[in-house]
Amino acid sequence: xxxxxxxxxxxxxxxxxxxxxxxxxxxxxxxxxxxxxxxxxxxxxxxxxxxxxxxxxxxxxxxxxxxxxxxxxxxxxxxxxxxxxxxxxxxxxxxxxxxxxxxxxxxxxxxxxxxxxxxxxxxxxxxxxxxxxxxxxxxxxxxxxxxxxxxxxxxxxxxxxxxxxxxxxxxxxxxxxxxxxxxxxxxxxxxxxxxxxxxxxxxxxxxxxxxxxxxxxxxxxxxxxxxxxxxxxxxxxxxxxxxxxxxxxxxxxxxxxxxxxxxxxxxxxxxxxxxxxxxxxxxxxxxxx
Length: 289
Ligand code: BJW
Ligand code: ZN
Hints:
The structure is a single chain. With 289 residues, the chain is of the alpha/beta class. The chain folds into two domains: 1-34 and 79-144 and 214-289, 3-Layer(aba) Sandwich (Rossmann fold); 35-78 and 149-209, SIR2/SIRT2 'Small Domain' (2-Layer Sandwich). It has eleven helices and nine strands. The protein has helices at 7-16, 49-52, 55-60, 62-78, 83-91, 94-100, 116-127, 169-172, 219-227, 247-253, 280-288; strands at 19-24, 105-110, 140-142, 145-152, 158-160, 205-209, 231-235, 257-262, 274-277. A six-stranded parallel β-sheet has the order 3-2-1-7-8-9, sandwiched between helices. Helix 7 links the parallel strand 2 and strand 3 (140-142). Helix 5 packs across helix 7 and helix 5 (83-91) packs parallel to helix 11 (280-288). The chain is globular and about 60 Å long. The two termini are 26 Å apart. The mean pLDDT is 92. Residues 25-27, 30-31, 36-39, 50, 53, 111, 113, 144, 209-216, 219, 236-238, 240-243, 261-264, 266, 279-281 line the site of ligand BJW. Substrate binds at residues 69, 72.
């Protein structure tokens, strides 16, 4: 049967759910001005972002990979959460979830490294009515790490630093990445000793994100939530990167419902129960509230 786009039927299904997971991807942050990965309009047209997101790329050319991440850190620092982030943050408040799905718990899994969902949740929590007993918000797992974090390649210390735009003087002066058609020579070749260094041991820092071939974070908690979910909201992801790409299928295989919110059709979405095509910053709040 073709997926439904009925908001009424979706709300009925949500109301009956007992365990809801949301799996988000880059499309969630598109309206905040953050480029998606498989988007053709980005500055880094000359470089495929996927080919920079590997340990091999970092080993071969840490200067290039750091410039890519430095640029994205700067973009994220200037960005703000959008209506879809706030909708999911609101769903993370048990008192609000209870009005939509009275028997359900909620777990939010994001592949995004921009921390915009965490920022939206913190904002929503700050505005929350302070009653006598405030239940904790739903868990939020940033399974591909955070641009805000750095990891030392020597002592393995993880630190969070999104306050400083630049992690070292050399990156501060690299400017905008090359536009399409510009020569690769335009990319600065920063010597290793001038790239971000660990304040504890002097080792080379790397971005605190999960690259291809590395193990995503919080997998035990995520597997438990997905394994018991009876409703999966899939928001703004091409569902091409595993293990996240398999979560909707898993929920569906155990008899649960799947609702997809995406700008365009994605592989396998005809197997979903609900399909809301369009910008999730509109379709998600419209469908939920
Ligand atoms: C909108 C919108 C709007 C736009 N509204 N929608 C063969 C088979 C199966 C697996 C593998 C395989 N070969 C290799 C693997 C494993 C590999 C993998 O999946 N590869 C695939 C390419 C096949 N996976 C891994 O290596 C992972 N690790 C792993 O598997 O470890 C083994 C293990 C597993 C389980 C247990 C134990 C061990 C690690 C994956 C790490 C991915 N890292 C990246 C980079 C992170 C750092 C960084 O940001 O630079 O994560 S890659 C990149 O892709 C990033 C994203 O999180 C991820 C997913 O992309 P996403 O979010 O879906 O973005 P897009 O651009 O693809 O899609 C955006 C969507 O939004 C589009 O559909 C638009 O239409 C839509 N959209 N605007 C709604 N306004
Ligand atoms: Zn160190």
